[in-house]
Amino acid sequence: MKRYLFTAAVLCIGLLAAITALLAHDAVRPPEMQSGHFIVAVNAIEQQLQNGDTQQAAQTAAELKTALVEYTEYSSTGFLWAVFGACAMMILIVLTYVWFSILRPFQKLSNFAEEIASGNFNLPLQYERTNYFGSFTGALDCMRREISTARACEKEAIENNKTVIASLSHDIKAPVSTIRAYAEGLEAGFAMDAEKRAKYLNVIMRKCDEVATLTNDMLLHSISDLDRLKMNPESFELCSFIRETVSELPARDVIRLHLPDSEIPIHADKNRLTQVFENITSNAAKYAKTDVDISVAVTAAGTELVFRDYGTGVPEEEIPFLFDKFYRGSCIRNENGAGLGLYIVKYIVTQSGGAVFAENLPDGFQIRVVLS
After folding, report:
1. Which of 19, 30, 131, 148 is 20 to 30 A from residue 117's alpha carbon, by CA?
2. pLDDT digits (tens, 9 = 90+) for 322-343
3. 307 backbone φψ class: left, alpha, beta (φ>0; ψ -120 to 50)
């Protein structure tokens, strides 16, 4: 940029010099005389008038007039070059001012932006009150400090999150080991009497509750990574998938299936769809405490899965918030939970290109999952 400014200055001054030289060339008609020649000419005219030679005096006066005109034109070239010098100086002053007040600060801002874009947030941008970008420079440097602070906090939060998850994962190992040991004891027949078997089962159930608590804590600390949840869609038969999935659900005893005889091909992530079934059916069994009907239909909007219970439903004013993160309605009845089940359901269904709806019925409540 500095080179371009120098080139512009040279071109402007060169153009001004060429114009001045052209005007001076047209004005120069240098006379072959000294300044004393005019005095001599005036004395000659006076002498000729005294001698009565008026004709000769008039001729000499005419020559003097011509010489004076040429002398005046000759003197104007000096004025032209003086104007040229003043203009050239003005051009240099203006360009120097433009460089120090506008172009150089702007170049600093450009270099600063390149450093920020490359991830260098440790380069300060000096605040200069003497240029037009003074306030803007201060704002940019403030932004740099805020971004640097935010990145440091984010890095610290990520490290803390990893530490918490690692700690919880380690804590889960102990109850799982206990569960396995007692399960192996039952399998090996160590608990021969009913009292001992009841004790073993009680320990196993208590340790399962501990694992559930720890996994809930882990879910709460890792929920911020949900937006990076990876989806692996594949093609499969929906009805067969539902029968197999429901047979493995904890609430399978209260689930009734209403499926068509023919298979329905679908393209989705099996593991994530299993999470959808687990979350919806466990919510229905926990809060409605009734049987749950699952039906499937093919509509114009896509493949529709309906999960219906026969409980008291949800207050209408709470339905718009059911799929929000950490939201728990007024009908929880002191049940344990984090308010994340339906939030995860909505996220998975949305990422699969579908939609989910909650509706009250005259004799229950239903959630419709539409997969395109």
Report:
1. 131
2. 888 777 777 665 666 667 778 8
3. beta
